[in-house]
Specification:
The relative contact order is 0.09. The chain has helices at residues 12-28, 109-123, 167-184, 214-226, 260-272, 288-293, 316-332, 353-356, 358-368, 374-389, 430-434, 463-469, 506-525, 534-544; strands spanning 85-87, 102-104, 138-142, 151-156, 159-164, 190-194, 200-206, 231-237, 276-283, 337-341, 395-399, 416-419, 440-442, 449-451, 489-497. Helix 4 (214-226) packs parallel to helix 5, helix 7 (316-332) packs parallel to helix 10 (374-389) and helix 12 packs parallel to helix 13 (506-525). By secondary structure, the chain is of the alpha/beta class. The termini are far apart.
Length: 546
């Protein structure tokens, strides 16, 4: 095609402009800027005006790649209790999406299927069994080293993998995931490596003095599980009531009580949440409900006094009925622990036990010789009850004021010390047990006792005080024992006691213990100084519960 140029001749510059216009026109309809068909090799191109050749067009710039998105280093997930270690990474993290599911390793479906279904329901995503993991999925698997109840949670390439050496560890990994999503909607990139500082982490409830419904107890179990607590103590026999149905001695059972079917339901839920139920039939004190039905078992002082709830431990009939109850209930509670009680035996709280209870004094010398005392008779009672439960394989514990030094006999060496107070007559310092090699569980009454009605000048414990001042080493009062004894302290338990049963409703108790129990869980999982302030911890605790 030849263009006729009117007007003064403008030379090469005008020709170049014309060529450019042709090029633009050719490209404007989406065609290539290459020469049209017929002008390639072997074809003679039209002759341009007799001027010098125009400069070649500028090369088309190559497209530059889209910049890769960069992420700041992640921070540890916001959960309670806080994770022990988090390896930060750069990445988008994880959040549940429309294609998210939960899967388990094929070899682990029988072991982890329940845990997988639970977290899937909580995240509102499907459980897909042993299907291959897809992008965005949560995978659960057993494996790896580490201590019992430990877990590793890795967020990478848009997915999550939770592993642990046992079911409990994997379960706790799912609790961390659930809480992080509740708090922030996501789980941060990187790897969590987590494990508890203490193997025994509990809540104990006095269901003897106050009747609590099975539903209330089950709600506490769910709350405990999310806090990674693993023991629920049930103190179900005391002076004011006996709260579980009995086949061997129905006459001692209170009108309002838990049926055995309800107890089995509670135990089953606890097992599914990796919580052990620790029953306690307290003796030889705190047996008022038994004595009400069997007044002949009552201890009587030299002056005719009849101390409430105290059986005559020299009477074989008292031992017989307690042993029958122990045998009955060890079958109902299949867990690994049993609490024998042993506290506040009134005969040993007298200034002169032998003079106040001469019948017991005579029984002690008859059994243990001239040097035998009432404390030996009480120690023998504790050992005999332990012998009844021991064949079940359960680990045994008793309150610290049920252990006595200086007698001709001593408590069996396998009995763990549930240390609660130094205020009672006969109570010994924590180090006296520790230096003898005893293992202990911390129930410190200064920090961990929630006593309904606040009798005798007691005040309700606060979460802040536990969070800021208590550790498992603080067994008595406010002073910690030396750190070298830390391995012997197996853990601790927050305790609800119902001395004035009507002082609070079930709902008030649940609300009252909420933050103290949360703080206890934090310090049993990791006794180090927490990173968050108390105010920040409170705020986070509200978020993680969803």
């Amino acid at each position: 095609m030849r263009y006729s140029i009117r007007g003064p001749r403008r030379g090469p510059a005008l020709l170049a402009a014309a060529v450019a216009l042709v090029t633009v026109a050719a490209c404007s309809d989406g065609s290539s800027s290459a020469p049209p068909a017929g002008t390639g090799a072997g074809t003679t191109a039209p002759t341009a005006a007799p001027t010098s050749a125009p400069p070649p067009p500028s090369p088309t710039p190559k497209p530059s790649p889209t910049p890769t998105k960069t992420y700041p280093l992640s921070v540890a997930p916001q959960v309670v209790p806080a994770v022990r270690a988090h390896q930060a990474a750069r990445g988008p993290g994880w959040k549940p999406g429309p294609d998210t599911g939960v899967v388990v390793a094929a070899k682990d479906e029988a072991a982890l299927g329940d845990e997988a279904k639970l977290i899937a329901g909580e995240l509102r995503v499907p459980y897909r069994g042993t299907a291959a993991a897809r992008p965005g999925d949560v995978t659960l698997a057993l494996g790896g080293g580490g201590a019992a109840e430990s877990y590793t949670l890795t967020v990478r390439d848009g997915g999550i993998r939770i592993t642990g050496p046992d079911q409990a560890g994997v379960f706790y990994g799912t609790r961390t995931l659930k809480q992080s999503v509740n708090a922030t909607g996501a789980m941060p990139e990187g790897t969590v490596t987590d494990a508890p500082a203490k193997p025994q982490r509990g809540l104990m409830v006095d269901i003897a003095r106050k009747y609590f419904t099975a539903d209330w107890i089950e709600n506490r179990l769910r709350e405990m599980a999310d806090l990674k607590l693993n023991q629920l103590g049930l103190h179900f026999s005391d002076d004011q009531g006996f709260r579980i149905a009995s086949d061997t001695h129905p006459e001692i059972v209170s009108e309002r009580h838990l049926s055995k079917a309800e107890v089995r339901r509670i135990v089953a839920l606890a097992q599914s949440l990796h919580i052990q139920v620790v029953p306690e039939i307290d003796s030889p004190g705190h047996l008022g409900a038994v004595i009400d039905a069997h007044p002949d078992l009552q201890l009587v002082s030299a002056t005719g006094g009849r101390p409430r709830g105290t059986v005559d431990i020299s009477d074989p009939a008292a031992a017989k009925i307690v042993d029958e109850l122990l045998r009955e209930y060890t079958g109902l509670f299949p867990g690994a622990y049993w609490h024998l009680g042993g506290d506040e035996y009134v005969a040993l709280m007298a200034k002169n036990p032998e003079a106040t209870y001469p019948e017991l004094a005579r029984a002690a010398t008859a059994k243990y010789g001239p040097s035998g005392r009432i404390q030996d008779l009480a120690t023998g009672w504790l050992n005999d009850r332990a012998a009844v439960v021991r064949p079940t394989g359960k680990a045994l514990r008793a309150w610290n004021d049920g252990f006595f030094a200086g007698g001709v006999t001593s408590a069996a060496p396998d009995l763990q010390v549930a240390y609660w107070t130094g205020a009672e007559i006969g109570a010994r310092t924590p180090t006296s047990y520790l230096s003898a090699g005893r293992k202990m569980i911390n129930y410190n009454d200064v920090f961990l006792y929630y006593i309904l009605g606040q009798p005798r000048g007691q005040t309700y414990p606060t979460g802040r005080r536990i969070y800021e001042q208590w550790t498992p080493l603080v067994l008595r009062g406010t002073t910690p024992v030396p750190a070298r004894y830390d391995p012997q302290i197996l853990g601790g338990s927050f305790a609800v006691w119902c001395d004035l049963a009507n002082a609070q409703t079930e709902a008030q108790v649940a609300a009252g213990i909420r933050m103290p129990l949360t703080a206890t869980a934090q310090k049993l999982w990791d006794a180090r100084q927490p990173a968050l302030s108390w105010a920040a911890f409170q705020s986070l605790a509200a978020k993680v519960r969803g």
